[in-house]
Amino acid sequence: AVPVDPKKAAQPAPAPAPAPAAAAGKKPDVKPISHLQPKAAEDKAAEPIGDSHSQRAPLKEIFERAIYILPYRSPELVQRIEAAVREINLKALGLTGGTERDLNTKVLSKDEAVNRDLDFIGGFELIDNEVRMFFLEGLGAKAMRMLEDKLPRNEPNNEAVRILKNPDILFGERIFIPFNVS
């Protein structure tokens, strides 16, 4: 048993937290994820202090995202995904004849990070004891189409393998830039 301080036990319970903005009839304060997008140094100098997202014109939605979920022990499929991404990214960066090491050591310059025409696939992989998940993004009509050609969906999603993507859903900004191209 935990000893109870009689002075604290006699105090009233704290007042309940105020209702969330949505429950009070107000719009919740939601900020876009675009703050994760690195900006070129000259953009930062010209940008006003404060939340500039509402002041910026919306960007053309050209980036597609996909999530590949597969069993941890699927070496053949993992190799196919990694090989496809590696081939697309080596070509995008002009590293003909390059290796995985070239991609692993490549750090995007500020200009490359904001270049909306640079046709590479970015993302990351999450692994636990049972599942691997690849979170990928790239230009919808280009790199992501090449990825789809290299990794065609041969069957519907099932318990073992799921591909979550829709080429009709596009985004204005990359969110996986901090992971570079490896």
What keywords describe this structure?
6 helices, alpha+beta, 15% strand, globular, 182 residues, 4 strands
What does this protein look like?
The chain is of the alpha+beta class and 182 residues long. It contains 6 helices and 4 strands; from the N terminus they run ααβαααββαβ. It has a 4-stranded antiparallel beta sheet with strand order 2-3-1-4. The chain starts with 5 loop residues before the first helix and ends in a 17-residue tail after the last strand. The relative contact order is 0.22.
Number of helices: 6
> In whole angstroms, how far apart are the ends?
53 Å
- Whole-number average pLDDT? 77
Q: Main sheet: which strands, in order across?
A: 2-3-1-4
Coarse morphology: globular
Bin the helical content.
25-40%
**H and E string:** HHEHHHEEHE
Give the strand content: 15-25%
> Main beta sheet, described?
4 strands, antiparallel
Tell me the structural class. Answer: alpha+beta
Specify Rg, calculated over alpha carbons: 23 Å
Low-confidence segments: 19-23, 27-52
Number of strands: 4
